[in-house]
Structures are given as structure tokens and as C-alpha cells.
Design goal:
Helix content is 42%, strand content 11%. By secondary structure, it is α/β, with parallel strands linked by helices. Helix 16 runs antiparallel to helix 17.
Length: 922
């Protein structure tokens, strides 16, 4: 086959520019067309990295030569086209090296012009040698299940059960893995000897984690491996299997076993159900077919003659896809042999709705898209017949010839009534394709014009038509705008483009809002200062509530002018106190716009149907163009999570009654929220065995009563007492400021650091706020102390300036040791020498020393009401009652933390400070 440099001449006018593209491991500089976004360029580079790079070694194949011209996309397109040209030359498609080079240049030009883009192919797999002889007899696609056959139906039902079990198993394995990781973390976070940390009896956190892992299904061997630090990772997701395709030839048959099996299969996994065996095999062959997409709007804009452009692109890309069939890979050997026999290809027209909406003729005329799609299919069939003359027809052509010729004849009759230039050209090409296929056969038994591929469309720069378009400016900024195609269509119909933009994008101001306007807000007490603050916030927030909250509005204005207290503000929000839900919704639409143009009151009459449902209009175009494709339109339908087999059977029956040839059916997977409301049943506990004691032991009866109370925030008094403690942890100054209720209970803390980074100081301040809110909502201080004592991070080490804490493992460890000693009387957390006032401590003070009360009582807080001669006597301090214990041994030094708090309890030694149980010897 020979090609003329038609597209190459047009590509000379494309302006390219250098781009810096961020890759996984580096930033590269490539040359790309000026109109392409960075995402589009990166998508092309990803596609080439995953493409095969094997070149033919047959005699006479051209060698690798660098393509002339600028290295667009770092030369990726030139190398890809040169590889296909080399394989085409080696398989006999091109008679000379010049013809192969012309083909490669045209292929690259079609991509640079934005006219076409190929789909991704396998980089490795199974392949039938291009020179292999055809197999005798027809082949069948092994992935198709004809459910009318009882044996095949039984095999399909067994496969459905395996897939359902595999999904549940993967979910269960993920849960077991999480519990085993928790076991490993419990050991790693333990601060003590390894023998103690790895003992579930001595490490309660490990014990709970191990019990949870056992309940999740892990055996004790796996738990021991997790304790030993051996890692467990979640199972990798299995490679996506080819979607199963089933044939239900008669869904209305009284014997509903095939329909029921298909419905059960779609509940387990994604499933394509075709209503004839031929359509089922065509749908299955689509998965092994190389494909490309042709952008109809780009063809209309770049090529002077639409008909000539579609003819040239169909012939060019049919040849390229035939070469890809010959040299490409399939997932396994059976599919490779099927691909070699059928040689399926996909040529899809995309952007049809964009192209029709940009026409100035008026309403959307879907017959023009049908004509364009039929012209592309007919031109591809002509090219396939030309390839059959050069090589030979496909191995399965004798089997498929009758059905293909009948389909071409039906298309020819259907297109005979079209009167437009494009329609007449489509009818003529279809008649020529019918005659050529009758005379020479076709190299392809399947030419599909309907196939969706999001990654391919991204490389082509095409997206489903919507009112809002997100695009990249020349300086790299991502902005939103009214889709240019819709803007042009509205302008062509005499509509208000600016009004459409305001309806879609909003006005970003409340100046003339129908609700919460400036006049209404002024009547509620807003001054020019507050209105200006709200208007400034509306330029960068995405929710109206975010513009009506502190710090945009001062707390004093909210409390004193609007009369809204802090509790009401937290519970319902400020905006809910200013307007009703309907008024808030109206103001939100005025400021931020609407989701689409479906309810725009100024829509031109000729565009009302399209703008009311853009997705429905695009789906209608695909259904209208379905007769020109050898593969049925497989509309995707997702059933609800709670759908059962009855709903699936009803959906399949409805699709068959509507005349659909195939449907893709699946069920939505359960979200994070549970679908079932299960009762919280307490498991029955086994009664303990009676102890063999001669005397009945006196047991203490513990009665628990659960009292539920509503957690409300307990506010602190405006004038409250507390204290400030200055200390240094590892040389870093820390200030703790406490606030107390009237009864002396801790209600808030503030943490200030000295000469630390702004990020760390802000983090500590917000941490203190979080703890304070928890205390005010009733969280016991003991919970915070137990959670944060003995946490380890820098700064840590020696503590100076505190009479109770001598060392700390972190800032949080110091803070909550101080709070535990001061407010909870947990003196086991103190690890420093006592002050002289504590004469019975480890310090060197004197018991008869008198301390002025001014040292502990704030004169300012008492407003001078405290007498100057008030003192604190040492014998007046509170002491703990002596603990009667059977063990009267003195405490020893703990080998882990160094505190003299190691006590012998029975046969074991327990440290009262860090809680470990070291093994004491000798």
C-alpha cells in the first residue's frame, strides 16, 4: 500500500514549544504542540513507556533511523511510527522503504495535528508469528459463555462462585493484615526489655492486638511472626481480568435458567450480556483489538475537506492497526490465535456532540454524526479489502463473510435516504465497501466504531461535553470556564454568553443576591467593614459558610452585634442564624453558580433539549451510530448495592425488550457505611468453674450501672485561677499555663515554646486547644496522662526549672507528668528531688520551715483579700494514707527508667513509673 503526504503538509503549520514535564524520578524538557496541556503531554509519555519496542529481524526490514524534523515528545512518536513501518515492510504491506517512510510521516502528522490517537497495547504476552499459516476451520473466543448450553452454564456458575469468593477473600485478608500490623506496632512501641514487650501477658497492648488478630482469622504462628517483627503486607490487587461476556439468546424464554445465571454473574462481577452469540463474540473480540480514536472537531478544524480527511484517516489507521495485529501481543496463546484469525480493529469517532453543537445550522442533527460514523466505517472496510488484496483475507473470513456482507447491505439501504453531502458520501463509500468485500474479502472480520477509552481520549485532548471546562492556561494555571463549544453554540443562536457564564460560574459577590444581599445584611447589623471582609472571602472560598465565620468576622461582632453566643455558633453555624435553608441555597447559587445549564432560563430554544441533558444527548448519538459498527453499543448500567437477582433479571429483560444488542451490567460495591443494621449482641460468657476450696470465699459483689448523659461543654468562668510553670526540656524552654474551674478542676491549658519554629509552636498551641476542648467536654485528665506519658521524640532529656520532674522523654511526656502530679496526685510520675517543703521526700529540706502563702495564692486574683501574715505549715499538707501490703521491701532502682520505684509484687518485680516487669537476677 502507498500513501501520499497529505497530513504531513498540514502538520508543518503546527507550532511546538518546549515544556518541562515532571516524571516519576526527574523533570524532563520535551517539545510538544503549543495547544497541548501538561497532562496531555505526560499521558503521551506514559503511553510510550508502556508500549512494546520490539523490531522485526526479518530479511529486508529497514533499520532504525532517526526521523527528520523536531523531536516531538522527545522522539517518542517518531520511534513508534518507525517501528510500525518496519513491521509493515517486513510483513509485505509496503513495497518499498519510501512507502514505509511516507506512512510513518503521515501517522506522526495525524497525532501532532490532534486528529487521532492510538489506544494502549500490551508490551509483552503471546503472539502468533506474522508469517504463520492460518489454522483450518473457524475459531471461537474462549471467553464467551453461551448460557443456552447447560454444560457451559454450569462452568459459568462455577466461575461466578470463584470470583465472588475471591472478592470476599481479598477483603478478609486485608483485615487480617491490619490486625497483624497492629501486633507488630504494639511490640515496637513498647518501652522496655524485649522479653517483656513481646509477652502478651506482660504487655497489655500486645495482648489486645493479638486477640484481635486471632478473632480476625490469623493463626498463632502468624501472630508469633508478627511479634518477632516479620512484616505482613496487604495482598496486591489481582490483575484486571478480561470482562466476562455471556450470550442469552432468548431472554423471554420460559426456561429462565440462562437469564438467572447471567443476573447472578453480574451481581458478582462486571459482566457483558449480549442477546446473540455473534454479538457476544464481537464484544469479547473487542478486548483483544488494537484501536484508535479520531477527533471529529479537530478534523473539521484542520482538514479543508471533511470527506477527504475521514477517508485518508480511515485508510491510514486501518493499515496501522493491521500492522499492530500482526506484531502485537495478546494475554495468552488462545487469544493470540483468535486475534490472528479474526484480526479485529477499532476506529472510533469521538467529540461528535462537540462537533454538532459547533455547527451554526441550528439544532443538533444526529443524522450528520451517523453519516460521519458510517463514512469512517465504510472507508475502513475499503482499506481492509485493499489489504486483503495485498496479503489475503482473514482466516475466519469464510465463516464471517455472510453476516458482514448482509450488514453492509443493510447499512447501504439505511443511508440511501440521507441528502447531505456527508450522507451521500457515506452511502457511496458503503456501496463501494460492499462491492470490494464481495470481490476480495476483508483482512478484518471485525471493524468496530464504538469503544470508550478515557486514557486514549486524554491523549487526544477530548472529554465528554459539559457546561464547565477545566483547562490549563499558557502560564500553567488551572482555571474554569464555560465550554468554548457551548459558548459558540449559544452565540450562534443569539443567546447571552455572559449570562450563561454567570449562571454556571456564579458572580462571587452578594451585592445583588436575591437573598443575603448587602441591604439585608446591613439591616441585620453588618457595617461596611464586615461586608468588605465577606466580599474578600468570597473570592477564594468554595462554600458560603466559610465566608461567614471567624476570622472573617470578628468574635466580638458576632457576640455583641448579632447576638449569637459561642455555643449556638458551634452547634448550628452563623449562616443558619441569619437566613433560612432556601435563602442560603439561593445565595449559594448566586455566588458560586450552578452545576450545569439544564435549568438556565435564557437557554436558546434550539439548544434546550441538548443542554437539558448533555450526557443523554451523547448517549443518543452513540445509539444512533450503532448500526455502522460490527460491535454493539454496550451501555453500562450499575445496579444499587442492595439489588438482588430479581432486579438484575428485570434490567436484562428490559434491555432486550428495548432492542439493545448488548448491555454491561454490574452492581455498586458497598461503601464505607454498612448496608445492614446489625444488633449489638453481647456474646454469652461461659460460667467459671467453681474453685475447689473447702471454705466458701467471701466474694465482693460489684454492681455497675450505666448512666448515659448528654455531653455538653462546661464553660470556664471568665475570671479563673491557675498557675504558670516555666521549665526547660533538653534545653528547650516550655511554658505551661493552666486554667481551673471554681472547684479546682483543670479546664484548659496553654503551651508556649521559646525560640522554636513557627510550625512547631503552632502545632503545640493547637494541640493545647484540642486538649482543652476535650477537658471541657468531660474527658478525664487521667486519659490524657495515660495516653501521652512516656511518648518519645525530641526534644527530650533533663528537665530544669521544675521541682517535681527531673527528666522527660518528650515535651508531651513532661507536660502530662506535670499535670498528673499537680492535679491528680499521681506522685509516681515525679522523678526529681522534692522541694524543701517535703521533708520526708528525697530532698534535703526541713520540716519546720514556714512558707508564705503568697507563694501559692495570687494576690491579684484575690484582689488583696488574702492576709499578709498567712503562711503554709508543712504538717498541714495532704498525705496519702499508708498502703497495707504484704510486701514491705524497699524500692530499688529500675534498670529501664532509673527511678527508685521498682517493687517486688509476689514473684515478679514491677516498676511503678514505667510499668515494665524486668527479669531480676541475683
Amino acid at each position: 500500500m502507498r500513501f501520499t503526504p497529505f497530513l504531513t503538509d498540514l502538520s508543518a503549520s503546527v507550532v511546538c514549544e518546549a515544556r518541562e514535564i515532571e516524571r516519576a524520578d526527574r523533570v524532563i524538557r520535551v517539545l510538544a504542540p503549543a495547544g497541548w496541556s501538561d497532562a496531555r503531554v505526560e499521558s503521551w509519555l506514559d503511553w510510550y513507556d508502556q508500549s512494546p519496542d520490539d523490531w522485526p529481524r526479518l530479511e529486508g526490514a529497514p533499520t532504525r533511523t532517526a526521523a527528520a524534523g523536531p523531536p516531538v515528545l522527545d522522539g517518542a512518536l517518531d520511534r513508534w511510527a518507525a517501528r510500525l513501518a518496519a513491521w509493515g515492510r517486513s510483513t509485505g504491506i509496503f513495497p518499498s522503504a519510501i512507502a514505509a517512510d511516507t506512512f510513518a510521516s503521515e501517522l506522526v502528522a495525524s497525532v501532532i495535528l490532534g486528529l487521532a490517537a492510538p489506544s494502549s497495547v500490551l508490551a509483552e504476552g503471546a503472539r502468533t508469528p506474522p508469517a504463520a499459516e492460518d489454522q483450518p476451520g473457524p475459531t471461537r473466543n474462549a471467553t464467551v459463555f453461551d448460557l443456552g448450553d447447560a454444560g457451559v452454564r454450569a462452568r459459568f456458575e462455577s466461575d461466578t462462585a470463584r470470583r465472588r469468593t475471591a472478592r470476599v477473600t481479598a477483603h478478609a485478608l486485608s483485615g487480617v493484615t491490619r490486625t497483624l500490623r497492629a501486633v507488630t506496632d504494639a511490640v515496637r512501641r513498647c518501652d522496655g526489655p524485649a522479653s517483656v514487650c513481646s509477652d502478651p501477658a506482660a504487655n497489655p497492648v500486645l495482648g489486645r492486638a493479638a486477640l484481635a488478630a486471632r478473632r480476625a482469622g490469623a493463626d498463632d504462628t502468624a501472630i508469633l511472626d508478627a511479634i518477632a517483627g516479620r512484616m505482613f503486607s496487604a495482598p496486591e490487587p489481582e490483575p484486571l481480568k478480561q470482562t466476562r461476556v455471556v450470550a442469552v439468546s432468548d431472554p423471554d424464554s420460559p426456561m429462565d435458567a440462562p437469564l438467572r445465571a447471567a443476573a447472578d454473574g453480574c451481581l458478582a462481577d462486571d459482566l457483558v450480556v449480549a442477546f446473540s452469540v455473534r454479538d457476544a463474540e464481537a464484544a469479547a473480540d473487542l478486548a483483544i483489538a488494537p484501536g484508535c480514536a479520531i477527533a471529529l472537531p479537530a478534523v473539521a478544524a484542520a482538514v479543508p475537506d471533511m470527506i477527504a480527511g475521514l477517508d485518508a484517516l480511515a485508510r491510514l489507521w486501518t493499515t496501522a492497526l493491521e500492522i499492530e495485529v500482526a506484531c502485537g501481543f495478546a494475554p495468552d496463546g488462545r487469544l493470540a490465535r483468535r486475534r490472528h484469525a479474526v484480526r479485529p480493529v477499532v476506529l472510533t469517532l469521538v467529540g461528535g456532540l462537540d462537533w454538532l453543537a459547533s455547527q451554526a445550522a441550528g439544532a443538533i442533527n444526529e443524522t450528520e454524526f451517523v453519516a460521519a460514523s458510517s463514512l469512517l466505517a465504510a472507508s475502513a472496510s475499503l482499506a481492509s479489502s485493499e489489504l486483503a488484496e495485498t496479503l489475503r483475507p482473514a482466516a475466519d473470513w469464510p465463516v464471517a463473510a455472510e453476516a458482514i456482507l448482509a450488514a453492509l447491505a443493510a447499512r447501504e439501504a439505511r443511508l440511501a435516504d440521507l441528502t447531505s453531502d456527508l450522507g451521500r458520501a457515506a452511502a457511496l463509500r458503503t456501496a463501494q465497501a460492499h462491492a470490494a468485500a464481495s470481490a476480495s474479502g476483508r483482512r478484518q472480520c471485525l471493524i468496530a466504531t464504538l469503544a470508550s477509552d478515557a486514557e486514549r481520549d486524554l491523549r487526544l485532548g477530548v472529554a465528554p461535553l459539559s457546561g464547565l471546562e477545566v483547562f490549563q492556561t499558557r502560564d500553567g494555571e488551572i482555571v474554569r470556564r464555560l465550554h468554548p463549544t457551548l459558548a459558540a453554540a449559544i452565540a450562534a443562536q443569539g443567546g447571552d454568553v455572559e449570562g450563561a457564564e454567570r449562571w454556571l460560574l456564579g458572580r462571587r459577590t452578594l451585592g445583588d443576591s436575591p437573598a443575603l444581599g448587602h441591604a439585608e445584611l446591613s439591616a441585620k447589623g453588618f457595617t461596611e467593614l464586615e461586608l468588605e471582609a465577606v466580599e474578600t472571602a468570597l473570592t477564594h472560598v468554595e462554600r458560603l459558610e466559610d465566608a461567614f465565620r471567624p476570622p472573617t468576622l470578628e468574635a466580638g461582632f458576632i457576640r455583641d452585634v448579632l447576638g449569637i453566643d459561642q455555643k449556638t455558633l458551634i452547634q448550628g453555624g452563623l449562616l443558619a442564624q441569619l437566613a433560612s435553608p432556601d435563602e442560603i441555597a439561593a445565595a449559594t447559587e448566586h455566588v458560586f453558580g450552578h452545576q450545569d445549564l439544564s435549568a438556565w432560563p435564557s437557554t436558546p430554544m434550539r439548544l434546550k433539549t441538548v443542554l437539558a441533558d448533555l450526557d443523554g444527548a451523547a448517549a443518543a448519538l452513540i445509539r444512533a451510530a450503532e448500526p455502522s459498527s460490527d460491535v454493539a453499543d454496550m451501555t453500562s448500567v450499575e445496579l444499587p448495592s442492595r439489588a438482588g437477582i430479581g432486579a438484575a433479571m428485570a434490567m436484562l429483560t428490559q434491555a432486550a425488550s428495548e432492542g439493545r444488542r448488548a448491555i454491561r451490567l454490574s452492581r455498586r460495591q458497598a461503601a464505607n457505611q454498612p448496608l445492614l443494621l446489625l444488633p449489638d449482641v453481647e456474646p454469652a460468657r461461659r460460667a467459671p468453674e467453681p474453685a475447689p476450696s473447702p471454705r466458701p470465699a467471701k466474694t465482693e459483689r460489684v454492681v455497675e450501672r450505666v448512666i448515659e448523659r448528654v455531653r455538653t461543654r462546661r464553660k470556664l468562668p471568665d475570671r479563673r485561677k491557675g498557675y504558670i510553670q516555666k521549665a526547660a526540656v533538653g534545653g528547650h524552654k516550655v511554658y505551661i499555663h493552666t486554667g481551673e474551674y471554681e472547684d479546682g478542676e483543670l479546664g484548659e491549658i496553654f503551651i508556649d515554646m521559646h525560640k522554636e519554629g513557627a510550625a512547631f509552636r503552632s502545632l503545640m498551641n493547637n494541640f493545647a486547644i484540642a486538649v482543652s476542648i476535650g477537658l471541657q467536654y468531660g474527658v478525664p485528665l487521667d486519659e490524657f496522662v495515660d495516653a501521652f506519658v512516656l511518648t518519645r521524640f525530641e526534644p527530650a532529656g533533663r528537665v530544669t526549672g521544675n521541682d517535681s520532674i527531673g527528666s522527660a522523654t518528650s515535651i508531651l511526656d513532661y507536660i502530662f507528668r506535670e499535670l498528673g502530679v499537680s492535679y491528680l496526685d499521681r506522685h509516681e510520675l515525679a522523678n526529681a528531688d522534692a522541694e524543701p517543703l517535703d521533708a520526708d521526700g528525697l530532698g534535703s529540706g526541713k520540716a519546720d520551715e514556714l512558707v508564705p502563702a503568697a507563694r501559692f495564692i495570687s494576690k491579684g486574683f484575690a484582689r488583696g483579700a488574702t492576709p499578709d501574715n498567712l503562711v503554709v505549715l508543712p504538717f498541714g499538707r495532704r498525705t496519702e494514707a499508708p498502703v497495707v501490703s504484704g510486701d514491705h521491701s524497699e524500692a530499688d532502682a529500675c534498670p529501664a527508667c532509673g527511678d527508685f520505684t521498682l517493687q517486688q509484687r509476689g514473684a515478679a518485680w514491677i516498676c511503678d513509673t514505667c510499668g515494665i516487669a524486668p527479669q531480676m537476677r541475683g
